UniProtKB/TrEMBL annotation:
InterPro entries, alphabetized: YdbS-like_PH
The keyword Membrane is assigned to this record: yes
Segments of skewed composition (Pro residues): 8-20
Secretion signal, residue range per the UniProt entry: none
Keyword match Chaperone: no
The name this protein goes by in its record: PH domain-containing protein
Pfam families, per the entry: bPH_2
């Protein structure tokens, strides 16, 4: 018996309420995107860094300016840090299809959870640039009446992107008929 005469340990204090983004809803089965998107983003970063580094390197070699040498160092350091964040950012993406809406989550420092009701979708777009096509990836873009609520799901295999596009389009048409 405890000192107050009751049997057993005292009840645990209640947990603080979860914020709107933390944690992600437990009742949702999140679908990850392809990790090949990491390579696509790293190649994009490398292309930009090569152009900047070449420009700064040539300028530094011809002028001998310490400022250009320091700028080159900053660009290379930024490239390394951005490479690390790309890996983590791609792994943070996920989407979930629910009965009435689609959830899309992403972000590291600023985490974002977008909830797009099927009835609000105006159209669904699938796109794939040259790098995405080289890695057999596509992006599904959702458009709604409110520009701020548009959402996208990058890094999907073409078959999954087509399936998701068709499903979202069908659900959007079904839900819109009731309005």
């Amino acid at each position: 018996m405890s000192s107050d005469g009751s049997a057993g340990p005292p009840p645990a204090p209640p947990l603080p309420p979860a914020g709107p983004l933390e944690p992600w809803p437990d009742t949702v089965r999140w679908q990850p995107i392809s990790s090949d998107l990491i390579w696509v983003e790293l190649i994009r970063l490398a292309l930009v860094l090569v152009v900047l580094a070449l420009g700064l390197g040539v300028g530094w070699a011809f002028s001998g300016s310490g400022f250009l040498g320091a700028a080159l160092g900053v660009v290379l350091l930024f490239g390394v840090l951005r490479g690390v964040t790309i890996v983590r950012a791609v792994r943070a993406w996920g989407y979930a299809e629910r009965e009435d809406d689609l959830l899309v989550r992403h972000g590291l420092l600023v985490r974002r959870l977008s909830i797009v009701p099927y009835s609000r979708m105006q159209f669904v777009d699938v796109s794939a640039g040259p790098l995405e096509r080289a890695f057999e990836l596509a992006t599904v873009q959702l458009y709604t009446a409110a520009a701020a609520s548009d959402a996208r799901v990058p890094g999907l295999r073409p078959a999954e992107a087509s399936r998701l596009r068709d499903r979202l389009t069908a659900l959007g048409e079904d839900r819109a008929e009731g309005l």
